[in-house]
Amino acid sequence: MAGSKGGDREQARPQVGAIRFEPDADTELGETAAWYEARSPGLGTRFLDEVEGLLRAVAHQPNAFPKLVTMRPDPEVRRALLRHFPFAVVYFVTGREVRVVAVAHARREPRYWLHRLAHD
Question: How far apart are CA 69 and CA 73, in angstroms?
Fold first, then answer.
């Protein structure tokens, strides 16, 4: 029924079918995990585990994370922050797919990844 709580909840949680990393984002993920692992054995794995958990949340509720308001409206770019590491997963949804454009350090070079959107 339109306007019912169940219907509203379904609209707020459009699950996606797949998560795809752009090549540069995939490289960032691997390099960051390797950097953490070199600092302390097991830390890279913890980083990857946290990213994986965050991506599950993004896939389940992609619109629950804040839009980057200064961005163009299409695609609607969002940022999901990691809890224990100073990184963010920057993504947008296209159809039933999440496209990760960056695994970005939250305190360095903001929006360095903008050129990656030009191909879409």
Answer: 8
Tokens representing residue 62 in the block = 């992609």
Q: What is the pTM of this model?
A: 0.79
- Domains of the chain (ranges; CATH) run 16-119 (3.30.2310.20)
Coil, strand, or helix at residue 23?
Answer: helix
The DSSP line for 41-78 is TTHHHHHHHHHHHHHHHHHH-GGGSPB-TTS-SSS--E
Q: Could you tell me if 87 and 109 are in contact, meaning their C-beta atoms sit under 8 angstroms apart? A: no
Burial of 74 (C-beta count, 10 Å sphere; 0-12/13-18/19+): exposed
Q: Can you say how many angstroms the Cα of residue 114 is from the centroid of all Cα atoms in its chain?
A: 14
- Angle between helix axes 43-60 and 23-39 (nearest 10 degrees) is 140
Query: In degrees rounded to 5, what are phi and psi of residue 109?
Result: 35, 65
pLDDT digits (tens, 9 = 90+) for 33-62: 999 999 999 999 999 999 999 999 999 999
